[in-house]
Amino acid sequence: MSETTNGELLTSSTTVSTTTVKGNVPGPAVSSRLPPTIAAVSKQVAHGTIWTVCGRTAALLASFFSTPFLTRLLGSEQYGIWALANTLNTYLSFTTMGMGTASTRFAAKPYTHSDEAGEAAVVWTSLLITIVPATVVMLIVILAARLLVSNLFSVPQYLQPEAAIVLQLTAIGFVARIFAEIFNTPQLVRLRLDLFTYVSMGTLIVQHGCVVIVLVKGGGLLGATGVVTSCSLILALMHVWVSRTLLPSLFRPRIDVKLIKPLLRFGSGVVLSTLLGILVLANIERVFLAYFSSVRELAYYSIAASLASLVSFIPSSMNQSLMPAMSTLHAAKDKIRLEALYVQALRAVLFCVLPMALMVCVAGEPFLRLWAGPEYAANSTYLLYILMVGVIFNIAAAPPYILLTAAGRTGTIAKCHLAETIPHLIYTSLLIFVFGAVGAALAWSLRTLVDAILLLAAARQEVSLSWQVLSGGWRAYGIALLMLVGTALVSFYFGGNLFVRLAIATIGCAGYCGVIWKKILNTAEQMFLLRLLRLRSANC
């Protein structure tokens, strides 16, 4: 998983014993690496989720602190270039050949069989597959940066030299993050989200703080970008060192030729789904905005998207644990527990997403005014409301996406994204050409709705899962949603007082959660959520 950068806010009685390995880092013992019950797996996922939540909360607070400095000290045009660099970082992700995900999935099997040499071979073979294309693309971006900013994007002429250097530094930092995504594999397959969080979120928090210092000292856009690139290099080195303590044989490089073909087969589906899903479907509206409109409009859109992404905070934290957990269960051919974990994930998402979406929308306009400034509050608030609908559907699509990936069905994901691509390109370009940033938000939200429907259907068909996630009954869902919608309308009617709006919205959220808890969630799912709360209390 990748971490957010500045300005992108970013979803049983069995006991697993531990032993001490080199570096005094506790790791799972050989004798009990596969928890035999879903409760044990859920506990590990819950523990990993809370570590991720705590880490991302700290990083989020740091981002809240740094973003006002970015928007005010850079100005809307330079901040638009900053957002453009973040978009480029996403677009370069296809050069990983899907090896960040593939290394985690394929390393799960040798780990469960106590095969350290095999696990290290997965890491080094994955790195070999991705390093050549990543380096080539990095060099292309470095050499063609001036051409890109002068001909492809609507960057003011006086900012083009600076924008070109920003893109070059971004490309260098991206290659460093490729190393980090592959070398963090030993942490993920062991579900050591505590170590992963310390390294990833710790580096990100330092990055936010250093960016603020550089901006205040007059370093400007180039200085801030240099900080991000430097932190990417440090992140890679830290992940290598921590993973070495968990997997002592990691520093004995070994390439397994027999792994190349299955890794590429798996990775090709990831690459295609990444190209279509992340690069074309999820972010093309930002490129079209920069081309058809301006980097200023892109800045407004990016701030709204950053605030809307707050809703995916807890669900995306759970997804960080779900991928290795589902990969391990699939490697053990434990379909029953895999299905149970999937259903728990979907219903946990149902429990927390809609109330969070309501609270963010209610507080959106005054928060934007305080956080980013009056200019962004005036131009980003309605974008936030539109994007929030898409964020909800995007969160719902994450568990089936992870399940299909863990099951090796990356080709199915690619087919779903392929079916969406041409229609999305057509209506996105038209909507942006006519409505600008509002059209971009509409196009993105429509795409996430279609994507969620296709992935949920594919998960059911490919892995033979039932629709038991809706077993609570439509009547209970209707009552819960009516509470949310009703209180949302009332809270917006009292638009003059933020505290009154938040109080009304809180009442609606409490009623919604009460109905979901009593009428829809079963005992196991209630215990899963209570475990999250207990772990959060213990870690705090």
Task: Report the span from N to C terminus.
Answer: 24 Å
- Helix count, DSSP H or I runs of 4 or more residues: 18
Instruction: Give the C-alpha Rg.
Output: 23 Å
Bin the strand percentage: under 5%
Spans of at least 5 consecutive residues whose pLDDT stays below 50 are: 1-36, 535-540
Number of strands: 2
Looking at the structure, what is the overall shape?
globular
Helix content: over 70%
Largest sheet: 2 strands, antiparallel
Describe this structure as you would to a colleague.
- This protein has helices spanning 38-91, 99-112, 116-152, 160-183, 185-189, 193-216, 220-246, 257-282, 284-293, 295-308, 313-331, 335-371, 374-406, 410-435, 437-462, 474-493, 498-519, 523-539; strands spanning 18-21, 25-28.
- With 540 residues, the protein is mainly α.
- A hairpin with a 3-residue loop joins β1 and β2.
- Helices cover 81% and strands 1% of the residues.
- The protein has a two-stranded antiparallel sheet with strand order 1-2.
- The chain is globular, with a radius of gyration of 23 Å.
List the helices and strands and how they pair.
Layout: E1 18-21, E2 25-28, H1 38-91, H2 99-112, H3 116-152, H4 160-183, H5 185-189, H6 193-216, H7 220-246, H8 257-282, H9 284-293, H10 295-308, H11 313-331, H12 335-371, H13 374-406, H14 410-435, H15 437-462, H16 474-493, H17 498-519, H18 523-539
Antiparallel strand pairs: 1-2
